[in-house]
Specification:
By secondary structure, this protein is of the alpha+beta class. It has 23 helices and 35 strands. GO terms for molecular function: RNA polymerase II general transcription initiation factor activity.
Length: 800
């Protein structure tokens, strides 16, 4: 599979702060997580006479692309291909051979058919029997897909099942028909293009049982699970939903519409409440034609649903299905589910409920095992000059004693190398300019006046309400030094306000600039045109609602992303658009600058996130793997990783260096709309439409906390500057403050928990909640902590 979704060639671009991108050799999984790739046809003429079909199952990322390549030929005069005759008592091989002959006849490959029949020494009656085969599984145009389903889905009977937890790629190759040296064969070949071709994807549903028995099969399994021991019941109950979906789709695909309707009505009420939205989509698929081109349908079919089950529970299930000869359910388990088996105690209902709920089940344990450098990069050493007031303070007792230790502690933070930090040069980062150094010095001075927050010292909250926002406020951002605030609106404008007495000014015209003395000390002040000073600047350029906004760390640029599929970079010196980045094909829901500037990330409706550099008009990395829209994006404080939250109800962490997906977090029961990293880089907080805030340990890849309290979508999350408090803002018109120190202390992150996912979340949301602050009628769209730990919140007033 190609790394970049738009191009067929796999290109990895090395990140460089300056100059054109340097091409790296392609890496496995580069830009597309760890997706597998299916076999493809050797050029237009195909290879030797073998038939291969592969559904490239989604690995831990990567958009799955089912590849189907069928090549068969025997040139006139070429030596016939020797084929081993099927043994008596091997009906399965015989059936496959008949299916191949039927396919060759359909494709008008007479010579190949004759040669195969001659070599296999098949009797004429047996070939005639192949017609009956076509009738049994649908004739005519469906014969090809019948063959494919037989080849791909020739699941073993219950007597010798393969454990589904072992294989990840559902590929099968029928080259066992040939034995001995085969002459090179090159005449006709049939190639199916390497696209998520719906008919190929759906072909596995062709392998049907008796439609009248589906309800009985499902009821039998349900009865077995409900009567099993309590310790196994919770784990085995995870099977209900994926089996229900695939059995329903199999009935619909094979045009048993009445049976499908009856099956849906009888069992859809048994599914967990958090699958209701998916079931609503499923209920609209009532005819075979509806399934073509349906995204949800492709998701269910192409990504294996992951279940994490203990070995004891799995053996119990296997034994039951073998005893009952329940091939139909066993085939679905083999084909469409990935059972991640672990050794140890089965998990409780509460432990399972905490982790499930995403579109494709839980994350495989392997997905969260790779090493993540979550530590912070070493800060450059900058001398902090003493202020006048600091010097005066030397004379008074008490003042220097309070201030000096604080300064030392800031200095020591930057001098010690964090053992979990990535190498300083792991990815190229921009050089610090003089203006950046000045800003860092200002930041350090502010830090000395920062308020230490905690349960006994809560921050003040300053709320910016956008009144009469009839244009519809869709995005907000605040600069790091809290001097500017930007709003993205549904009328496609971006508006920038100054929230300090200093007004916004543009740079003078070129003619006026030529008169300025470039050597003067206040040259940066002189280039500004006082005539343009105002509190508000409006930026025009997008042609659709603006859904994301992000200021650069140096406050010289502003990014905005829109429904029009572009991300725009605006200059805050001239208040004009500098670049329009075109890469997404659909609305771009979010964009964010790296904490070091230069790089930025965007995510949208096309299900991928893209990493860009401001001086490249094409993305450097494409992060593909989510099964639905990427709603929110966030850089890790060390800029080496990007987190994305999606409507598929998962959060993924991507490595900027190679594009790999290094963490998959499941547990939310609704689309994810907000993300934030703790200042020390160890933890991630996520908020979703389910109103819950979940806390994750990045190093161990584990959920470590759940904060309940909001009654609507959590739109914004932010940690205080020292990480003691987490603030959450929601559509329920409240800001809530949580005790982050207490939430992260005494974590159980031993190896056993990491290996099996036996997490025990304390029910302590109420103890951790420090305060709830209501607005009159304003959903909280954005939160920001100033450098002195004052909370700024923003939203548009919505009259009742």
């Amino acid at each position: 599979m190609a790394a970049l979704a738009e191009e067929q060639t796999e290109v990895a671009v090395k990140l460089e702060p300056e100059g054109p991108p340097t091409l790296l050799p392609p890496q496995a999984g580069d830009g597309a997580g760890e997706g597998g790739s299916g076999p493809t046809n050797n050029g237009p003429n195909g290879g030797g006479g073998n038939v291969s079909a592969a559904s490239s199952a989604s690995g831990d990322g990567g958009t799955p692309k089912p590849a189907v390549a069928v090549s068969a030929a025997a040139p006139a005069g070429a030596a016939p291909v020797p084929v081993a005759a099927p043994e008596a008592g091997a009906p399965h091989d015989r059936q496959t051979l008949l299916a191949v002959l039927q396919f060759l006849r359909q494709s008008n490959l007479r010579e190949a058919e004759e040669a195969l029949r001659r070599e296999a020494r098949l009797l004429e009656e047996a070939v005639a029997g192949s017609g009956a085969l076509g009738e049994a599984d649908g004739t005519g145009a469906e014969a090809a897909s019948t063959l494919l389903s037989r080849v791909t889905a020739s699941a073993p009977g219950p007597s010798a099942p393969d454990p589904p937890g072992t294989g990840a790629s559902g590929a099968a190759t029928v080259s066992g028909l040939t034995s001995g040296p085969a002459a090179p064969v090159k005449v006709g070949s049939v190639a199916v293009e390497d696209q998520p071709d719906v008919s190929a994807v759906l072909s596995a549903y062709n392998q049907q049982g008796d439609p009248a028995m589906y309800e009985e099969y499902y009821s039998g399994l349900k009865h077995f699970i409900e009567c099993s021991l309590d310790c196994h019941r919770a784990e085995l109950s995870q099977l209900f939903y994926p089996l229900f979906v695939h059995m329903y789709l199999e009935l619909v695909y094979n045009q048993h519409e009445n049976e499908a309707k009856s099956f849906f009505e009888k069992f859809h009420g048994d599914q967990e409440c958090y699958y209701q939205d998916d079931l609503r989509v499923l209920s609209s698929l009532t005819k075979k034609e509806h399934m073509k081109g349906n995204e949800t349908m492709l998701d269910f079919r192409t990504s294996k649903f992951v279940l994490r089950i203990s070995r004891d529970s799995y053996q119990l299930l296997k034994r039951h299905l073998q005893e009952k000869q329940n091939n139909q359910i066993w085939n679905i388990v083999q084909e469409h589910l990935y059972i991640d088996i672990f050794d140890g105690m089965p998990r409780s209902k509460q432990q399972i409920d905490a982790m499930v709920g995403s579109l494709a089940g839980e994350a495989k344990r392997e997905a969260n095992k790779s090493k993540v450098f979550f530590g912070l990069l070493k800060e450059p050493e900058i001398e902090v000059p003493l202020d006048d007031e600091d010097e005066e303070g030397e004379n008074e007792e008490g003042k220097p004693k309070k201030k000096k230790p604080k300064k030392d502690s800031i200095g020591s933070k930057s001098k010690k190398q964090d053992p979990n930090a990535p190498p300083q040069n792991r990815i190229p980062l921009p050089e610090l300019k003089d203006s950046d150094k000045l800003d860092k010095i200002m930041n350090m001075k502010e830090t000395t006046k920062r308020v230490r927050l905690g349960p006994d010292c809560l921050p003040s909250i300053c709320f910016y309400t956008f009144l009469n926002a009839y244009q519809g406020l869709t995005a907000v951002d605040v600069t790091d030094d809290s001097s500017l605030i930007a709003g993205g609106f549904a009328d496609s404008t971006v508006r920038v306000w100054s929230v300090t007495p200093k007004k916004l000014r543009s740079v003078k015209q070129a003619a006026d600039l030529s008169l300025i003395d470039k050597e003067s000390d206040d040259v940066l002040e002189r280039i500004m045109d006082e005539k343009t000073a105002s509190e508000l600047k409006i930026l025009y350029g997008h042609s659709g609602p603006v859904y994301g906004a992000s200021f650069s760390p140096d406050r010289n640029y502003l990014l905005s992303s829109s429904e029009d599929g572009t991300v725009r970079l605006w200059s805050l010196q001239t208040f004009t658009c500098l670049v329009g980045y075109k890469g997404h094909n659909y609305p771009v829901w979010d964009t964010q600058f790296s904490p070091y500037g230069y790089y930025f990330v965007s995510g949208g409706h096309d299900r991928v996130a893209r990493l860009w550099a401001t001086d490249h008009y094409q993305p450097l990395r494409i992060f593909a793997g989510h099964l639905a829209d990427v709603n929110c994006t966030r850089f890790h404080p060390n800029s080496n990783y990007v987190a994305t939250g999606s409507a598929d109800r998962t959060v993924r962490l991507w490595d900027v260096l190679n594009g790999n997906c290094v963490r998959i977090f499941t547990g939310h029961k609704g689309p994810i709309h907000s993300l934030t990293f703790s200042p020390n880089g160890r933890f991630l907080a996520t908020g979703a439409t389910d109103g819950r805030v979940l806390l994750w340990d990045i190093g161990h890849g584990l959920m470590v906390g759940e904060l309940k309290g909001h009654t609507d979508t959590v739109c914004s999350l932010r940690f205080s500057r020292d990480g003691e408090i987490l603030a959450s803002g929601s559509m329920d018109n409240t800001v809530r403050l949580w005790d982050a120190i207490k939430a992260f202390e005494d974590l159980e992150t031993d190896d056993f928990t990491t290996a099996t996912g036996h997490i025990n979340l304390p029910e302590n949301s109420q103890e951790l909640l420090l305060g709830t602050y209501m607005t009159k009628s304003t959903p909280v769209v954005h939160l920001h902590f100033t450098r002195r730990n004052l909370v700024l919140a923003a939203g548009a007033y919505s009259p009742q």
